[in-house]
Amino acid sequence: MSKLEQDFQKASKEFQRLQADLTSTIEARQKLDYQQSESDLVLKELTKLKPENTVYKLIGPGLMPQDAAEAKQTVEKRLDFIKKEIERIEAQLKTIGEKAEKKKTEIIKLQTEIQKSQPPATAA
């Protein structure tokens, strides 16, 4: 196997790894979107509460009363965390996408070089 073919295989494996990373990062982003949506709905419901309403929090197998203001603050903090995670994941997606694009260009270049280095087929 020639050096070009070895480089091509190495680049192909790296590209496949980048594609797998991209897929898992996209899945993480989708999960965060779901969590953000769910937390937005909870916050919306918490803002509708009146002072006399009781909020319960699931702790282990039971529901425990919780202060509504504390519950709202907890959800707001969760939303802030989720937004920061989304920003981090978006940066990862951009970086992985750029690396994958570079690797794809490298693969195409290597493929072209391999084709040029092979002797032309003769007609029988």
Automatic annotation (TrEMBL):
Coiled coil: 72-106
GO biological process, one term: protein folding
SUPFAM superfamilies in the cross-refs: Prefoldin
Keywords, alphabetical: Chaperone, Coiled coil
UniProt KW Chaperone keyword: yes
InterPro entries to which the protein is assigned, alphabetical: PFD_beta-like (IPR002777), Prefoldin (IPR009053)
Top-rank lineage group of the source organism: Eukaryota
Entry's Gene Ontology cellular component terms: cytoplasm; prefoldin complex
Family annotation (Gene3D superfamilies): 1.10.287.370
Gene Ontology MF, one: unfolded protein binding
Residues making up the signal peptide according to the UniProt record: none
Homology family: Belongs to the prefoldin subunit beta family.
Protein name from the UniProt record: Prefoldin subunit beta
